[in-house]
C-alpha cells in the first residue's frame, strides 16, 4: 500500500499549465526525486502534495484516504520542509523549536531539543537569536525538526540541502536514509546532484510554455 499517492494532478498558475495528468505513488521505504528546470512547477507540486494548496484537478491520498477528508491525520504524519524556514529570527534556536513543537503536537523529552541542536553542530549557539546565526546555521535550526517529529512518516522536502556545508549535507543524508530504513517515505526536490545514497524514483517536470 502506498503511503502517499496522487492521481491525475493538474496545476495552472497565471494561465500557464504547469503540469497535468501527474500520477505518483510512494510506499514505505521509498524516495522520490522531483526534478525539472526553474519554474517547471516542482514547488507547486510539493505544496499540492502537502494539502496546503488545492490542485486544479486530481486528488492526493495518504494511506489511501483523500487528504482533503483526512487532513488532520495526514498532517500529524507529515513533515514539510519548504523554502521558507518558518523560524522567528528574534528568538533563539531552543525557543524556536519549543514553539514549533507546540504548534505541531510534538512533545520532546526533557533536554531533547538541546541534544538535537548538538547533533546539528550548534553547541554553544542554542541561546543566540537566529538572526545572529549564519545562513547554514539558521537552516540547521529548522532541520532539527527532522529529528524531533518522529511521528512523521511522510517527508516532503523542497531543496533541503540548500546552504548546508559538506558536513551538514552528510548529516541530513544520514537522517533521510535512517527515516527511509525505518519505513518512512520521502518526496524531495534538489538542484544539486543526488546526495542521498539510496535507490530513488524520479518524476521529471518539463518547463511548459
Ligand atoms: N502563488 C503564485 N502565483 C502566481 N504564480 C506562481 C505562484 N507560485 C508559483 N507561481 C509560478 O509558477 C511557476 C512554477 O513555480 P514553482 O515555484 O513551482 O517552480 P519550481 O520548479 O519549484 O522552480 P525552482 O526550481 O526555481 O524552485 C513559476 O513560473 C512561478 O512564477
From TrEMBL:
InterPro entries reported for this sequence: AAA+_ATPase (IPR003593), ABC_transporter-like_ATP-bd (IPR003439), ABC_transporter-like_CS (IPR017871), ABC_transptr_haem_export_CcmA (IPR005895), P-loop_NTPase (IPR027417)
GO MF entries: ATP binding; ATP hydrolysis activity; transmembrane transporter activity
**What PROSITE patterns does the entry give?**
ABC_TRANSPORTER_1, ABC_TRANSPORTER_2
Q: Which residues form the ABC transporter domain?
A: 4-207
Alphabetical UniProt keywords: ATP-binding, Cytochrome c-type biogenesis, Hydrolase, Membrane, Nucleotide-binding, Translocase, Transport
Documented EC number(s): 3.6.3.41
A family per Pfam: ABC_tran
Set out the biological process GO terms recorded for this chain's protein: cytochrome complex assembly
UniProt name for this protein: Heme exporter protein A
Amino acid at each position: 500500500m502506498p503511503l502517499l499517492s496522487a492521481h491525475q494532478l493538474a496545476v495552472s498558475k497565471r494561465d500557464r499549465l504547469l503540469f497535468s495528468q501527474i500520477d505518483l505513488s510512494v510506499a514505505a521505504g521509498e524516495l522520490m526525486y522531483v526534478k525539472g528546470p526553474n519554474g517547471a512547477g516542482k514547488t507547486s507540486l510539493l505544496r499540492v502534495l502537502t494539502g496546503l494548496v488545492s490542485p486544479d484537478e486530481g486528488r492526493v491520498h495518504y494511506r489511501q484516504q483523500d487528504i482533503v477528508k483526512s487532513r488532520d491525520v495526514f498532517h500529524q504524519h507529515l513533515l514539510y520542509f519548504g523554502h521558507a524556514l518558518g523560524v522567528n529570527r528574534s528568538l533563539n534556536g531552543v525557543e524556536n523549536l519549543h514553539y514549533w513543537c507546540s504548534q505541531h503536537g510534538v512533545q520532546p523529552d526533557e533536554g531533547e531539543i538541546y541534544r538535537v541542536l548538538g547533533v546539528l553542530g550548534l553547541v554553544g549557539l542554542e541561546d543566540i537569536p537566529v538572526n545572529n546565526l549564519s545562513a547554514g546555521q539558521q537552516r540547521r535550526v529548522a532541520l532539527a525538526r527532522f529529528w524531533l517529529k518522529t511521528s512523521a512518516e511522510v517527508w516532503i522536502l523542497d531543496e533541503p540541502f540548500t546552504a548546508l556545508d559538506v558536513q551538514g549535507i552528510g548529516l541530513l543524508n544520514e537522517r533521510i536514509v535512517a527515516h527511509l530504513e525505518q519505513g518512512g517515505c520521502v518526496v524531495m526536490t534538489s538542484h544539486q546532484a543526488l546526495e542521498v545514497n539510496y535507490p530513488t524514483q524520479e518524476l521529471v517536470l518539463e518547463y511548459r510554455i
